Amino acid sequence: MSAWGLDEAGPIIDTTTVFGRPVDVFLDIGFGHGESIVAMAASAPDEGIIGVEVHTPGVATMLDAAAVRGLENVRVVHGDVLVFLDRIGAATLSGVRIFFPDPWPKVRQHHRRIVRDDVVGALTDRLQIGGTLHLATDIADYAAAMERACRHEPRLAGGVIDRPGWRPVTRFERRGLEEGRNAVDLLYRRTA
Fold this sequence. Notes:
The chain has an eight-stranded mixed β-sheet with strand order 1-4-3-2-5-6-8-7, with helices on both faces. It starts with a strand and ends with a strand. The chain has one domain: Vaccinia Virus protein VP39 (Rossmann fold, 3-Layer(aba) Sandwich), CATH 3.40.50. Helix content is 32%, strand content 27%. α5 (117-126) links the parallel β5 and β6. The protein has helices at residues 15-19, 35-43, 56-69, 81-84, 117-126, 140-151, 171-178, and strands at 5-6, 24-29, 47-53, 74-78, 93-99, 127-137, 156-161, 184-190. The model has no long low-confidence stretch (mean pLDDT 95). The relative contact order is 0.16. The protein is α/β, with parallel strands linked by helices.
């Protein structure tokens, strides 16, 4: 991969080594083509962002953008976040962001949704106390399912929030707005 790439599998990473300095690290899951990571990384250069994406074209676009813009605070993983989680130590992340994940709309596909009880538990394990889990979707039944999964995790507190001004509008969000769907943002903080 490039200087911005991290392998999907391997030993637990030391984020100070990965970013060359101590930083608050955010995990961005399913970044698409990376427009939101680029915007957030440029506006918060003191944060480290690890983006994980399964689709090769999006990874290639993100790696190119990181190189062209010199985003030293971004690392990219081409692969499955559920595999990559084994590389993240307990209580090391400042935040996890999942913006507009694939809704897998058919009932028989719901088990494929990334935001579900077991994944929320695994993500919470990796959040520092006070760390945040920020979710966004414009699919009403998925928003309700996300809220239920987070409510089932006793170490999290939070719920629906207004869209923060710092969260970039993604291409999926724009498409949903054009189709008459409004986004729901959910923000949870690890309390224990």
